[in-house]
Amino acid sequence: VIAGNWKMNHGPRAAGAYVGSFLPLLGGVRSQVLLFPPALSLPAARAALGEDRGSLALGIQQIHDHPSGAFTGELSAEMAVEAGATYALVGHSERRALFRESDAEVALRFRAALRAGLQPVLCVGETLEERQGGGVEEVLGRQLDAVLGPRSSPSAEFLPPFLVAYEPVWAIGTGVHAEPEDAEAAHAFLRARIALRLGDTRSAEVPILYGGSVTPENAQALLAREGVDGLLVGGASLNPVSFAEIVRIAG
Ligand code: 13P
To answer: In the chain, is it the N or the C terminus that has fewer CB atoms within a 10 Å radius of its CB?
Structure first.
């Protein structure tokens, strides 16, 4: 799974043009490719996709947990589905840090995505301070448990399809990506923690993506690591040519 998070970039016009030039670059690609445009650009991106969507799907970057109501400025998972989304980012570190989103809110949004039939991509990751203090597993465990629950009591509500993205905060937009072996260790921890909750078989169905300063230059080394099932790309997904290059590296 190779996902591009455009963040607050590419309005409707640019999104339509992007998809128009990106699609022809995907010939022969076997990976599932996801684009997360700004919500306002979803309809334009969907229109540019047409009926022949192939391996390309759309997602929304952020949802509220209610289906509708008096929440000025917010968007629901149900609306995202109507606008063409099949995936939703949940708990991106920019939401957690800049908009003070709590673990509890992230958990509600994760459930809201599943309720509406969207596949949530749960983003987790530690800050530099937390890494330097040896707290990586504590942070990842806390962020995951807040959503999936700490104990083994599988409930239909939490069964896949969903995805997890390991995005160390210090690697996002900094040009400093995680060392592939550090990414591998974090992914192994996450996989084991998901298995505690869902069991080994179900856990194996959850793709775990790496995100943070992914480029065409480092994508291969990251994808080569055990347990790295895909990538969540920010800056390098803004240009269809460089993003297609990453997609082609994944195969
Ligand atoms: P960059 O690839 O720009 O570091 O962003 C990563 C990210 O936050 C994707 O969600």
So the answer is: C
Which of 10, 36, 163, 172 is the pocket-test mutation for ligand 1 (most atoms within 8 Å of CB)?
A: 172
How open is the CA angle 99-101-103, to the nearest 5 degrees? 160
For residue 193, give the 3-state DSSP assignment.
helix
- Which ranges in the chain belong to alpha helices (H)? 12-22, 42-49, 77-82, 93-98, 103-116, 128-132, 136-148, 180-198, 200-204, 219-223, 240-250
**Residue among 139, 212, 219, 202 nearest 175 (CA):** 212
Residue 171 tokens read as 């690697």
DSSP secondary structure code for residue 24 in this structure = G
Ligand 1: residues whose CB is within 6 Å? Answer: 5, 92, 167, 172-173, 211-214, 232-236
Could you report the per-residue pLDDT of 213-230, keeping only the tens digit for each?
Answer: 999 999 999 999 999 999
C-alpha 22/C-alpha 30 separation (Å) is 15
